[in-house]
Amino acid sequence: MAYVDHAFSITDEDLDFEASYVVHNRPPIKEIALAISLLIFGTLGLFFTALGAVLFIPGFYYTRIAYYAYKGYKGFSFSNIPPV
C-alpha cells in the first residue's frame, strides 16, 4: 500500500475545522501584563542571574510579540500569545 501525505490536501473535512475557528484580534490584557511584569522583574533580577534569566527571556519574547502585533507587523498577531 502506498503512503499518501494528506497534509496539503483540500477536502470537505478541512472546511469543517476552519468554520469553527474564530479569530479575535483584540489585545489579551492579562497576557500582556504578565509579559511586561516578567520583563520588569527579569530586568531587576539580572543581579540574581538564574532567576533573572528565567523571568527576562519569556518576558522579553512575549512583550516583543505584543508590540509587533500592536504595530501591525506582518506575521504577528495577539493570537500568538498563549492564554494565561
TrEMBL record:
Transmembrane intervals: 32-57
InterPro entries with a match to the protein in the record: TMEM230, TMEM_230/134
Record flagged with keyword ATP-binding: no
GO cellular component terms listed in the entry, alphabetical order: autophagosome; early endosome; Golgi apparatus; late endosome; membrane; recycling endosome
Protein's cellular compartments: Cytoplasmic vesicle, Autophagosome; Cytoplasmic vesicle, Secretory vesicle, Synaptic vesicle; Early endosome; Golgi apparatus, trans-Golgi network
Primary localization: cytoplasm
Keyword annotations: Cytoplasmic vesicle, Endosome, Golgi apparatus, Membrane, Synapse, Transmembrane, Transmembrane helix
Topological type in the membrane: Multi-pass membrane protein
Function: Involved in trafficking and recycling of synaptic vesicles.
UniProt record similarity statement: Belongs to the TMEM134/TMEM230 family.
Name under which the protein is recorded: Transmembrane protein 230
Naturally occurring in which organism (per UniProt): Nelumbo nucifera (Sacred lotus)
Lineage of producing organism: Eukaryota, Viridiplantae, Streptophyta, Embryophyta, Tracheophyta
